[in-house]
Specification:
This protein is of the alpha/beta class. The protein folds into 2 domains: 258 residues, Rossmann fold (3-Layer(aba) Sandwich), CATH 3.40.50.10540; 85 residues, formyl-coa transferase, domain 3, CATH 3.30.1540. The chain is 35% helix and 14% strand. The protein has 17 helices and 11 strands. A 6-stranded parallel sheet has the order 3-2-1-4-5-6, with helices on both faces. The chain has a 3-stranded antiparallel sheet with strand order 7-8-9, with helices on one face. It has a two-stranded antiparallel ribbon with strand order 10-11. α1 packs across α7. It starts with 7 loop residues before the first strand and ends in an 11-residue tail after the last helix.
Protein backbone atom coordinates (compact mmCIF):
# COMPACT_ATOMS: atom_id res chain seq x y z
CA UNK A 1 0.00 0.00 0.00
CA UNK A 2 1.22 3.50 -0.80
CA UNK A 3 1.92 5.56 2.31
CA UNK A 4 -0.42 8.44 1.36
CA UNK A 5 -3.03 6.43 -0.52
CA UNK A 6 -6.46 7.98 -0.02
CA UNK A 7 -5.10 11.51 0.46
CA UNK A 8 -6.18 13.94 -2.25
CA UNK A 9 -4.35 17.20 -2.90
CA UNK A 10 -5.55 20.14 -4.98
CA UNK A 11 -2.29 21.58 -6.25
CA UNK A 12 -2.56 25.15 -7.50
CA UNK A 13 1.20 25.72 -7.30
CA UNK A 14 3.41 26.46 -10.27
CA UNK A 15 7.09 26.82 -11.21
CA UNK A 16 9.36 24.94 -8.72
CA UNK A 17 8.81 25.28 -4.97
CA UNK A 18 5.22 24.05 -4.74
CA UNK A 19 5.50 21.38 -7.45
CA UNK A 20 8.55 19.94 -5.66
CA UNK A 21 6.42 19.45 -2.57
CA UNK A 22 3.38 18.00 -4.35
CA UNK A 23 5.51 15.67 -6.49
CA UNK A 24 7.11 14.15 -3.38
CA UNK A 25 3.66 13.63 -1.87
CA UNK A 26 2.43 12.11 -5.14
CA UNK A 27 5.39 9.72 -5.13
CA UNK A 28 4.27 8.67 -1.66
CA UNK A 29 0.83 7.83 -3.02
CA UNK A 30 -1.26 11.00 -2.71
CA UNK A 31 -3.72 11.73 -5.52
CA UNK A 32 -2.43 15.11 -6.68
CA UNK A 33 -4.73 17.08 -8.98
CA UNK A 34 -2.72 19.80 -10.66
CA UNK A 35 -5.17 22.67 -10.96
CA UNK A 36 -3.96 24.82 -13.88
CA UNK A 37 -5.24 27.88 -15.67
CA UNK A 38 -6.24 27.16 -19.28
CA UNK A 39 -2.81 28.29 -20.52
CA UNK A 40 -1.11 25.91 -18.05
CA UNK A 41 1.78 26.19 -15.63
CA UNK A 42 4.22 28.74 -17.05
CA UNK A 43 7.07 26.24 -16.90
CA UNK A 44 5.43 24.00 -19.52
CA UNK A 45 6.86 26.35 -22.13
CA UNK A 46 9.97 27.64 -20.36
CA UNK A 47 13.38 26.47 -21.60
CA UNK A 48 11.64 24.15 -24.05
CA UNK A 49 14.04 21.83 -25.89
CA UNK A 50 11.56 19.86 -28.05
CA UNK A 51 8.90 21.73 -30.08
CA UNK A 52 5.40 20.70 -29.07
CA UNK A 53 6.52 18.94 -25.88
CA UNK A 54 6.36 20.24 -22.33
CA UNK A 55 9.73 21.43 -21.09
CA UNK A 56 11.95 19.37 -18.83
CA UNK A 57 11.49 22.13 -16.28
CA UNK A 58 7.83 21.11 -16.06
CA UNK A 59 8.06 17.37 -16.59
CA UNK A 60 10.75 16.84 -13.94
CA UNK A 61 8.62 18.54 -11.25
CA UNK A 62 5.16 17.20 -12.02
CA UNK A 63 5.34 13.42 -12.25
CA UNK A 64 2.49 11.25 -10.90
CA UNK A 65 -0.09 14.06 -11.02
CA UNK A 66 -3.36 14.58 -12.86
CA UNK A 67 -3.95 17.85 -14.72
CA UNK A 68 -7.21 19.76 -14.89
CA UNK A 69 -7.60 23.20 -16.48
CA UNK A 70 -10.03 25.63 -14.87
CA UNK A 71 -10.83 29.23 -15.71
CA UNK A 72 -11.11 30.79 -12.27
CA UNK A 73 -12.36 34.03 -13.77
CA UNK A 74 -15.64 32.36 -14.74
CA UNK A 75 -18.49 31.58 -12.33
CA UNK A 76 -18.53 27.95 -13.53
CA UNK A 77 -14.80 27.63 -12.94
CA UNK A 78 -15.18 28.89 -9.38
CA UNK A 79 -17.93 26.32 -8.85
CA UNK A 80 -15.53 23.55 -9.90
CA UNK A 81 -12.92 24.93 -7.50
CA UNK A 82 -15.39 24.96 -4.59
CA UNK A 83 -16.52 21.41 -5.36
CA UNK A 84 -12.91 20.21 -5.48
CA UNK A 85 -12.19 21.83 -2.12
CA UNK A 86 -14.95 19.69 -0.65
CA UNK A 87 -13.31 16.53 -2.02
CA UNK A 88 -9.68 17.25 -1.06
CA UNK A 89 -7.62 16.93 2.11
CA UNK A 90 -5.04 19.57 1.16
CA UNK A 91 -5.02 22.60 -1.12
CA UNK A 92 -1.69 24.18 -2.08
CA UNK A 93 -0.89 27.58 -3.59
CA UNK A 94 2.12 29.79 -4.26
CA UNK A 95 0.47 32.79 -5.89
CA UNK A 96 1.63 36.32 -5.30
CA UNK A 97 0.32 38.06 -2.17
CA UNK A 98 -3.46 38.53 -2.24
CA UNK A 99 -4.21 36.69 -5.52
CA UNK A 100 -6.60 34.12 -4.02
CA UNK A 101 -8.13 36.76 -1.77
CA UNK A 102 -9.05 38.86 -4.78
CA UNK A 103 -10.74 35.84 -6.35
CA UNK A 104 -12.89 35.60 -3.23
CA UNK A 105 -11.11 32.71 -1.57
CA UNK A 106 -9.41 33.80 1.63
CA UNK A 107 -8.18 31.10 4.00
CA UNK A 108 -11.22 31.81 6.17
CA UNK A 109 -13.54 31.20 3.21
CA UNK A 110 -11.74 27.98 2.22
CA UNK A 111 -11.87 26.74 5.84
CA UNK A 112 -15.60 27.49 5.89
CA UNK A 113 -16.14 25.45 2.71
CA UNK A 114 -14.22 22.47 4.14
CA UNK A 115 -13.30 22.76 7.84
CA UNK A 116 -10.92 19.77 7.66
CA UNK A 117 -8.94 20.93 4.63
CA UNK A 118 -5.32 21.99 5.09
CA UNK A 119 -4.03 24.92 3.09
CA UNK A 120 -0.34 24.95 2.19
CA UNK A 121 1.03 28.31 1.12
CA UNK A 122 4.47 29.26 -0.18
CA UNK A 123 5.41 32.92 -0.20
CA UNK A 124 8.69 34.67 -0.81
CA UNK A 125 8.69 36.36 2.56
CA UNK A 126 5.51 35.17 4.26
CA UNK A 127 2.20 36.92 4.79
CA UNK A 128 3.42 39.23 7.56
CA UNK A 129 6.24 41.70 8.06
CA UNK A 130 7.70 44.56 6.00
CA UNK A 131 8.75 42.26 3.14
CA UNK A 132 5.39 40.50 2.74
CA UNK A 133 4.47 42.22 -0.53
CA UNK A 134 7.84 41.69 -2.20
CA UNK A 135 8.36 39.15 -4.97
CA UNK A 136 11.00 36.46 -4.63
CA UNK A 137 12.80 33.99 -6.83
CA UNK A 138 15.34 31.27 -6.05
CA UNK A 139 18.41 33.50 -5.98
CA UNK A 140 16.60 36.34 -4.22
CA UNK A 141 15.73 33.91 -1.41
CA UNK A 142 19.36 32.73 -1.27
CA UNK A 143 20.50 36.35 -1.08
CA UNK A 144 18.10 37.36 1.66
CA UNK A 145 18.19 34.13 3.68
CA UNK A 146 21.93 34.28 4.43
CA UNK A 147 23.26 31.73 1.94
CA UNK A 148 24.97 34.03 -0.55
CA UNK A 149 26.87 36.12 1.98
CA UNK A 150 28.51 32.96 3.32
CA UNK A 151 29.19 31.20 0.00
CA UNK A 152 32.28 31.90 -2.12
CA UNK A 153 35.79 33.12 -1.45
CA UNK A 154 36.54 35.96 0.99
CA UNK A 155 38.03 38.24 -1.65
CA UNK A 156 35.41 37.48 -4.31
CA UNK A 157 31.75 38.05 -5.01
CA UNK A 158 29.09 36.17 -3.06
CA UNK A 159 27.82 33.08 -4.89
CA UNK A 160 24.49 31.33 -5.19
CA UNK A 161 24.60 27.58 -4.77
CA UNK A 162 23.65 25.27 -7.61
CA UNK A 163 21.33 23.40 -5.24
CA UNK A 164 17.91 25.03 -5.40
CA UNK A 165 17.63 25.67 -1.69
CA UNK A 166 15.25 28.60 -2.18
CA UNK A 167 12.69 26.73 -4.27
CA UNK A 168 13.09 23.00 -3.78
CA UNK A 169 14.29 23.54 -0.20
CA UNK A 170 11.10 25.46 0.55
CA UNK A 171 9.06 22.67 -1.04
CA UNK A 172 10.64 20.15 1.32
CA UNK A 173 9.82 22.32 4.32
CA UNK A 174 6.20 22.61 3.17
CA UNK A 175 5.88 18.84 2.75
CA UNK A 176 6.90 18.37 6.39
CA UNK A 177 4.39 21.00 7.53
CA UNK A 178 1.54 19.51 5.50
CA UNK A 179 2.13 16.01 6.83
CA UNK A 180 2.17 17.35 10.40
CA UNK A 181 -1.07 19.28 9.80
CA UNK A 182 -2.64 16.21 8.18
CA UNK A 183 -1.82 14.15 11.26
CA UNK A 184 -3.43 16.78 13.47
CA UNK A 185 -6.52 17.08 11.24
CA UNK A 186 -7.04 13.35 11.47
CA UNK A 187 -7.12 13.70 15.28
CA UNK A 188 -9.14 16.91 15.58
CA UNK A 189 -11.20 17.10 12.41
CA UNK A 190 -9.89 20.62 11.80
CA UNK A 191 -7.51 21.75 9.09
CA UNK A 192 -5.10 24.66 9.37
CA UNK A 193 -3.10 27.12 7.31
CA UNK A 194 0.51 26.03 6.72
CA UNK A 195 2.86 28.72 5.45
CA UNK A 196 6.51 28.50 4.45
CA UNK A 197 8.42 31.57 3.31
CA UNK A 198 11.34 31.00 0.96
CA UNK A 199 13.52 33.38 2.96
CA UNK A 200 12.71 31.49 6.17
CA UNK A 201 13.50 28.13 4.59
CA UNK A 202 16.91 29.30 3.35
CA UNK A 203 17.70 30.77 6.75
CA UNK A 204 16.89 27.43 8.38
CA UNK A 205 19.27 25.67 5.98
CA UNK A 206 21.97 28.17 6.99
CA UNK A 207 21.63 27.56 10.73
CA UNK A 208 25.30 26.56 11.22
CA UNK A 209 26.29 29.99 9.95
CA UNK A 210 24.19 31.54 12.70
CA UNK A 211 26.01 29.24 15.13
CA UNK A 212 29.25 30.83 13.92
CA UNK A 213 27.72 34.31 13.97
CA UNK A 214 27.25 33.96 17.73
CA UNK A 215 30.61 32.28 18.32
CA UNK A 216 32.29 35.29 16.72
CA UNK A 217 31.12 37.45 19.63
CA UNK A 218 33.41 35.40 21.87
CA UNK A 219 36.42 34.71 19.69
CA UNK A 220 37.81 33.70 16.33
CA UNK A 221 36.82 30.53 14.50
CA UNK A 222 39.82 28.23 14.52
CA UNK A 223 38.42 25.86 11.89
CA UNK A 224 38.23 28.64 9.26
CA UNK A 225 41.22 29.03 6.94
CA UNK A 226 40.54 32.76 6.60
CA UNK A 227 41.29 35.22 9.41
CA UNK A 228 38.53 35.61 12.01
CA UNK A 229 38.46 37.52 15.27
CA UNK A 230 36.20 38.36 18.17
CA UNK A 231 33.68 41.06 17.31
CA UNK A 232 34.36 41.00 13.56
CA UNK A 233 30.64 40.81 12.88
CA UNK A 234 29.66 38.97 9.73
CA UNK A 235 30.48 35.32 9.24
CA UNK A 236 33.01 35.36 6.39
CA UNK A 237 33.00 33.48 3.12
CA UNK A 238 35.57 30.72 3.46
CA UNK A 239 35.71 28.93 0.14
CA UNK A 240 35.53 25.16 0.55
CA UNK A 241 36.31 25.03 4.26
CA UNK A 242 34.23 22.36 5.98
CA UNK A 243 32.67 24.87 8.35
CA UNK A 244 32.57 22.19 11.05
CA UNK A 245 34.65 20.71 13.83
CA UNK A 246 36.71 18.61 11.40
CA UNK A 247 38.92 20.23 8.77
CA UNK A 248 37.81 19.66 5.20
CA UNK A 249 38.54 21.05 1.76
CA UNK A 250 38.36 20.36 -1.97
CA UNK A 251 41.58 19.03 -3.52
CA UNK A 252 42.39 19.33 -7.23
CA UNK A 253 43.44 16.08 -8.94
CA UNK A 254 44.78 15.19 -12.37
CA UNK A 255 44.03 15.94 -15.19
CA UNK A 256 43.02 19.17 -13.41
CA UNK A 257 39.78 19.85 -15.27
CA UNK A 258 36.90 21.85 -13.78
CA UNK A 259 35.45 18.81 -11.96
CA UNK A 260 38.65 16.89 -11.21
CA UNK A 261 38.35 17.53 -7.50
CA UNK A 262 37.80 15.45 -4.40
CA UNK A 263 36.53 16.64 -1.04
CA UNK A 264 38.66 15.40 1.85
CA UNK A 265 37.92 15.59 5.60
CA UNK A 266 40.92 15.23 7.89
CA UNK A 267 39.57 13.83 11.15
CA UNK A 268 41.76 13.67 14.24
CA UNK A 269 41.80 9.86 14.12
CA UNK A 270 42.99 9.60 10.51
CA UNK A 271 45.80 12.13 10.42
CA UNK A 272 48.61 9.69 11.24
CA UNK A 273 47.55 7.21 8.57
CA UNK A 274 47.05 9.94 5.97
CA UNK A 275 50.36 11.63 6.82
CA UNK A 276 52.27 8.35 6.59
CA UNK A 277 50.71 7.55 3.22
CA UNK A 278 51.33 10.88 1.53
CA UNK A 279 54.55 11.69 3.41
CA UNK A 280 56.38 8.64 2.07
CA UNK A 281 55.65 9.69 -1.50
CA UNK A 282 56.45 13.36 -0.93
CA UNK A 283 59.82 12.65 0.68
CA UNK A 284 58.51 13.63 4.12
CA UNK A 285 58.65 10.41 6.15
CA UNK A 286 58.22 12.29 9.46
CA UNK A 287 55.09 14.16 8.35
CA UNK A 288 52.85 12.44 10.93
CA UNK A 289 54.91 13.96 13.77
CA UNK A 290 55.68 17.29 12.09
CA UNK A 291 55.10 19.94 14.78
CA UNK A 292 53.04 22.04 12.36
CA UNK A 293 50.42 19.29 12.11
CA UNK A 294 50.85 16.98 15.11
CA UNK A 295 47.70 18.07 16.96
CA UNK A 296 44.35 19.24 15.63
CA UNK A 297 44.98 22.74 16.95
CA UNK A 298 48.27 22.84 15.03
CA UNK A 299 46.58 21.64 11.86
CA UNK A 300 43.90 24.27 12.16
CA UNK A 301 46.56 26.97 12.55
CA UNK A 302 48.58 25.66 9.63
CA UNK A 303 45.84 24.18 7.52
CA UNK A 304 46.75 26.02 4.34
CA UNK A 305 50.19 24.34 4.48
CA UNK A 306 48.53 20.98 5.14
CA UNK A 307 46.16 21.36 2.18
CA UNK A 308 49.11 22.37 0.01
CA UNK A 309 50.89 19.10 0.77
CA UNK A 310 47.76 17.01 0.17
CA UNK A 311 47.20 18.83 -3.13
CA UNK A 312 50.80 18.17 -4.17
CA UNK A 313 50.26 14.45 -3.54
CA UNK A 314 46.90 14.43 -5.36
CA UNK A 315 48.44 15.95 -8.50
CA UNK A 316 49.61 12.46 -9.50
CA UNK A 317 46.17 10.84 -9.21
CA UNK A 318 42.69 11.18 -10.64
CA UNK A 319 39.88 11.87 -8.19
CA UNK A 320 38.78 8.22 -8.34
CA UNK A 321 42.35 6.97 -7.83
CA UNK A 322 42.82 9.28 -4.85
CA UNK A 323 39.50 8.08 -3.42
CA UNK A 324 40.77 4.48 -3.72
CA UNK A 325 43.86 5.47 -1.69
CA UNK A 326 41.91 7.29 1.02
CA UNK A 327 39.06 4.83 1.62
CA UNK A 328 41.24 1.97 2.98
CA UNK A 329 42.75 4.30 5.57
CA UNK A 330 39.27 5.54 6.59
CA UNK A 331 39.67 9.13 5.43
CA UNK A 332 36.18 10.55 4.70
CA UNK A 333 36.21 11.74 1.11
CA UNK A 334 34.18 11.98 -2.04
CA UNK A 335 34.85 13.06 -5.62
CA UNK A 336 33.16 16.18 -6.91
CA UNK A 337 30.40 14.56 -8.96
CA UNK A 338 29.42 16.41 -12.13
CA UNK A 339 26.01 16.04 -13.73
CA UNK A 340 27.57 13.61 -16.22
CA UNK A 341 29.17 11.62 -13.41
CA UNK A 342 25.86 11.30 -11.58
CA UNK A 343 23.81 10.52 -14.69
CA UNK A 344 26.04 7.51 -15.34
CA UNK A 345 26.86 6.44 -11.79
CA UNK A 346 26.26 2.79 -10.86
CA UNK A 347 25.39 3.70 -7.27
CA UNK A 348 22.84 6.31 -8.36
CA UNK A 349 21.21 3.99 -10.91
CA UNK A 350 21.10 1.17 -8.37
CA UNK A 351 19.25 3.38 -5.88
CA UNK A 352 16.84 4.54 -8.60
CA UNK A 353 17.90 8.14 -8.18
CA UNK A 354 18.05 8.71 -11.95
CA UNK A 355 15.12 7.02 -13.65
CA UNK A 356 14.08 6.73 -17.29
CA UNK A 357 10.58 7.81 -18.31
CA UNK A 358 8.82 8.13 -21.64
CA UNK A 359 5.85 9.89 -23.20
CA UNK A 360 4.57 10.19 -26.75
CA UNK A 361 5.50 13.85 -27.13
CA UNK A 362 8.95 13.96 -25.58
CA UNK A 363 10.06 10.37 -26.05
CA UNK A 364 12.53 9.02 -23.49
CA UNK A 365 13.80 11.31 -20.77
CA UNK A 366 15.31 11.04 -17.30
CA UNK A 367 14.17 12.34 -13.95
CA UNK A 368 15.81 12.55 -10.55
CA UNK A 369 14.26 9.80 -8.44
CA UNK A 370 12.55 9.70 -5.06
CA UNK A 371 15.10 10.56 -2.34
CA UNK A 372 12.93 9.25 0.50
CA UNK A 373 12.98 5.46 0.55
CA UNK A 374 9.99 3.80 2.24
CA UNK A 375 10.53 0.06 2.66
CA UNK A 376 6.85 -0.90 2.63
CA UNK A 377 5.73 1.51 -0.07
CA UNK A 378 8.45 2.24 -2.65
CA UNK A 379 7.69 5.00 -5.11
CA UNK A 380 6.64 4.20 -8.65
CA UNK A 381 7.49 7.19 -10.81
CA UNK A 382 5.17 8.01 -13.72
CA UNK A 383 5.36 10.74 -16.34
CA UNK A 384 4.00 14.26 -15.86
CA UNK A 385 0.48 14.96 -17.17
CA UNK A 386 -0.28 16.80 -20.38
CA UNK A 387 -2.21 20.05 -19.95
CA UNK A 388 -5.84 19.27 -19.11
CA UNK A 389 -5.31 15.56 -19.71
CA UNK A 390 -7.53 14.57 -16.79
CA UNK A 391 -10.33 17.12 -17.05
CA UNK A 392 -13.10 14.59 -17.71
CA UNK A 393 -11.59 12.03 -15.34
CA UNK A 394 -11.55 14.44 -12.39
CA UNK A 395 -14.91 16.04 -13.14
CA UNK A 396 -16.73 12.74 -13.53
CA UNK A 397 -14.90 10.39 -11.16
CA UNK A 398 -13.99 12.81 -8.35
CA UNK A 399 -16.85 15.32 -8.48
CA UNK A 400 -19.48 13.02 -9.93
CA UNK A 401 -20.51 15.33 -12.78
CA UNK A 402 -22.34 13.61 -15.61
CA UNK A 403 -21.38 14.01 -19.27
CA UNK A 404 -24.13 16.54 -19.98
CA UNK A 405 -23.02 18.80 -17.11
CA UNK A 406 -19.39 18.59 -18.18
CA UNK A 407 -20.30 19.53 -21.74
CA UNK A 408 -22.44 22.44 -20.62
CA UNK A 409 -19.60 23.76 -18.44
CA UNK A 410 -17.19 23.43 -21.34
CA UNK A 411 -19.50 25.51 -23.52
CA UNK A 412 -19.75 28.09 -20.72
CA UNK A 413 -15.93 28.43 -20.70
CA UNK A 414 -15.21 26.85 -17.32
CA UNK A 415 -12.10 25.09 -18.60
CA UNK A 416 -10.78 27.38 -21.31
CA UNK A 417 -9.44 30.89 -21.54
CA UNK A 418 -11.94 33.55 -22.61
CA UNK A 419 -11.56 34.66 -26.23
CA UNK A 420 -9.21 37.56 -26.71
CA UNK A 421 -10.82 40.91 -27.36
CA UNK A 422 -10.49 42.12 -30.92
Amino acid sequence: MEALKGIRILDMTHVQAGPTCSQLLAWMGADVIKFEPPQGDATRGQLRDIPGADSLYFTMLNCNKRSITVNMKSAEGKTVFVDLLKHCDIVMENFGPGVLDRLGFTWEKIHEINPKIIMGSIKGFGSSGPYAEFKAYENVAQAMGGAMSTTGTPDGAPFVTGAQIGDSGTGLHLAIGLLAALNQANRTGQGQYVEVAMMDGVMNLCRVKFRDHQRLTRGGLSEYSVPTSQGMGDVPRAGNDSGGGQLGNAIHCKPHGPNDWIYVVVQEAVWAGLANRIGAELGLPELATDARFALIGDRRKNQNDMWGLITKFAANYTKREFMAILNPIDVPCGPIMSTTDLANDEHIRGREMYVELEDERRGKWWNVGMPIKLSASPAKIERAPFLGEHNDDVLMNVLGYDAAKVEAMKVAGAFSAPPKKA
